[in-house]
Amino acid sequence: MSKKYQIFLACGLVAATTRLFAASDYVQLQQQVISNDSILKSLQQSQNAYAINQKYAGRLNNPTFNLELDNLGNSDLKDLDGPTTMIGLSQDIPLNNKRALRRQLAGFQGNNNQFEALKRQAELKADFRVCMANWYAASKRVEIYSTESKMNARQAHVLNEKLKFGRVIPSDVQLSSALSSESKLRYQNEVKKVQFQKNLCSKFISVLPDQAIEVPLSINFADKVSLSEQDALLKTQLAKTQYELAKKEAVPDITLGLGVRNYQETNDKVFLVSTSIPLTVFNRNKGKIALAQAEQVHAETRSILVNRNSKIELENKSIEVSNLIDSIKNYDQSILPATKESLRIAEMGYQAGKISLLEFNSIKQIWLDKHLARFDLWLALQNQIAEVERNYVTNLDQE
């Protein structure tokens, strides 16, 4: 996308002071939606539990208390001492830095929870934008339908007056009255749709402005990272750690023991040190290692594919957005002013008797359709921006 579009988007199409205030109000509402979301709060609150889990994940197993009594009942046998007592502790000692890898695995659980919170925040931003944009578009459509209804009512009144003097035919009066009634009903239905859209937005936040505010069009495609890329990266790191741990687990833990033995007959006490080292004659971890390696390769391959596709999709989004912006600019600068002027001339021409009622209504319909099409384009642009907000973030540490 060219610099012209990036600058245009970065400015957010906001040149007027009123739009700047609207953008500020929208940002504040968005922040309230994010801060009040119960699901996001639960994810953030549970992060402490994952931190505790990581803290204890790499600790040693509890030591084992050992108590031995031997030579009981054999004190009268030749060359044997009396009963002896041994008290000691034994501890498993993991080798090859297994504890660090176990802590790292537990840390990935916390990272996944943070990722879910980030994804929820992006989802809230996108859904709130779509809802507020629909509310604003509905309110702007009401203004157009209101203008149309007033125009039809004025036209019907003028024709009724002319009919009294026989200057128009009755069929034109009947058609004009019917169109006036239809446009009035359409306007009333559109007013209800505005309230309907506002009610939908109240699901996100209970206190909304009395009137719909214009949703800013600011978006920057630079330095965007997709959530699918982040997800693939987390899975790749997890698979790599699992593979490393599987290789380390092939070497069994050793057991160290310390104790004190008491010989009852001689009342001697000796200190004991013992060790137990398993022999890796049968490597039962080969299958686990092979599976972990295969999962790592799969995760790395998927991550490469996701990264490539995400960049392509983002580039396509920028193209779609720039095309919509060009279309909206064309409507604002050329099409809408032309249809407005055409309607003004047509209304004057009809009143002067230079064009027929059907011709006038046809031009009026074109005026209405073009204004509605402009709002459809604006809403489509908002939906495209919402898709970027839903699937991409700028700075993962600040989101």
Tell me what you see in this structure.
This protein is rod-shaped. It has 9 helices and 6 strands; from the N terminus they run ααααββααβαββααβ. α4 (47-57) runs antiparallel to α5, α5 (98-164) packs antiparallel against α6 (170-201) and α7 (227-249) runs antiparallel to α8 (286-351). Residues 1-5 and 7-18 have low confidence and may be disordered. It has 399 residues and is α+β, with helices and mostly antiparallel strands. The strands form 2 sheets. A 4-stranded antiparallel sheet has the order 1-2-4-5, with no helix packed on it. A two-stranded antiparallel ribbon has the order 3-6. It has a domain at 3-36 and 100-230 and 311-393: Up-down Bundle (Outer membrane efflux proteins (OEP)), CATH 1.20.1600. Residues 1-22 form the signal peptide. InterPro entries: OMP_efflux (IPR003423). Belongs to the outer membrane factor (OMF) (TC 1.B.17) family. This is TolC family protein.
Concise structural overview:
The protein has nine helices and six strands, in the order ααααββααβαββααβ. With 399 residues, the chain is an alpha+beta fold.
Give the helices and strands, then pairings:
Elements: H1 3-10, H2 17-36, H3 38-45, H4 47-57, E1 64-70, E2 84-93, H5 98-164, H6 170-201, E3 225-226, H7 227-249, E4 254-263, E5 268-276, H8 286-351, H9 357-391, E6 392-393
Antiparallel strand pairs: 1-2, 2-4, 3-6, 4-5
